Amino acid sequence: MPTTDPAISLRDFQQLIRQMYLEKDVARGIDGTFMWLMEEVGELAAALREGTPDEQAAEFADVLAWLTTIANVAGVDLSAAVAEKYGEGCPGCGLLVCTCDDAEKP
Amino acid sequence: MPTTDPAISLRDFQQLIRQMYLEKDVARGIDGTFMWLMEEVGELAAALREGTPDEQAAEFADVLAWLTTIANVAGVDLSAAVAEKYGEGCPGCGLLVCTCDDAEKP
Which of B:41-70 have CB within 8 Å of A? Predict the structure, then answer.
């Protein structure tokens, strides 16, 4: 049985990544860890362009993991961050179904 | 009370973002939506360099939201994706506390 519940909370995923990687991440530092995030973002772009669904899923997982690992180093709680920014509807228009003009930054 | 439970599951967050933005995202397409992700990644870099903790939290939330929104367009379940990739330990060394050489790609 996977360690990660398919209905895992963002908080528990952040803790999993913390346990798995924090020591290495702190040793490497935020800038070096951000470089890894960028590498994975590039791989995600490639997978979206020409990858299989499984390859795309793997790259999404990697980007999320590296984003989360940087959040751990920076001391940011992702669960609280998204609740604060998106918990009351779109940050731009305030609605649960966004009506912002597409040219505007939500 | 925020719509988003601070202990929100990744699955529920993906559904929240789907409800909020999917129609607009599909109309814009994956490439255009990926451009927004890149813009937010740049803002995250700036916030990590010189932003306050609150500013950093907001940028982490935005990057996560845009990543999630692209996953919706691509038809990828982030919760299943991270369970598959990270649910049994580090993808590189298989351990819950990673022992990969730092030069290796996990």
Answer: 41, 45, 48, 53, 56-58, 60-65, 67, 70
